[in-house]
Design brief:
Strand content: 25-35%
Radius of gyration: 21 Å
Order of helices and strands: HEEHEHEEEEEH
Number of strands: 8
Structural class: alpha+beta
Shape: elongated
Strand order of the largest sheet: 7-6-5-4-8
């Protein structure tokens, strides 16, 4: 049975990534001019900081040097995390996106932009933002109804004092001004 290079690389590298406490999200081998680039995307429930990325990059590089998985030609290894607007394709992706705004393409057609409030085995609990002064509403969305989902970047989101017991920076500035008065 023939397997692709990406599948062989996944078999080789996934145990190593997992041993570092990370999930192997994606492997891609691309040609850039005369050079090849091996891109490895990793993530975890707690995220992956630069130190963890560097550690896994060194471990993957050493493993690849031991084998002929990339052949004899030169290549560059790039290890990183999913981007800010990542696609959600696995259950764990939805769990990691709780409290994030997501754009859903629905199987029935149409689009929905909503914040993920909760995830279980069957689907998602969502908060759909209100339009034109209306209050936000909640909605249940089954995984089977989702064609595609992508996290949205929010530049203007104000943190509320909520389940985390935190409040936004504006509240801190207001408190300081009141204390000084």
């Amino acid at each position: 049975m023939s397997t692709t290079q990406s599948e062989r690389l996944r078999e080789l590298l996934e145990p190593l990534v997992t041993s570092q406490g990370l999930d192997l999200e994606e492997i891609a081998v691309d040609s850039v001019g005369r050079k090849r680039v091996l891109r490895v995307v990793v993530d975890s429930d707690t995220g992956a900081d630069l130190d963890r990325i560097a550690d896994v990059s060194r471990a993957l590089s050493a493993k690849l040097d031991e084998t002929d998985a990339m052949g004899d030609a030169e290549y560059t290894l790039e290890v990183g995390t999913p981007g800010a607007e990542r696609s959600l394709t696995e259950h764990r992706h939805y769990t990691r996106a709780v409290d994030r705004l997501v754009r859903f393409q629905l199987h029935e057609g149409g689009e929905l932009v909503a914040r993920i409030l909760g995830v279980d085995d069957d689907g998602l609990d969502l908060e759909v933002p209100g339009v034109k002064g209306r209050k936000a509403t909640t909605r249940r969305l089954a995984f089977g109804d989702i064609d595609k989902a992508r996290v949205q970047v929010e530049f203007n989101r104000k943190d509320k004092q909520d389940k985390h017991g935190q409040h936004d920076k504006q509240d801190d500035e207001n408190m300081t001004e009141e204390e000084e008065a």
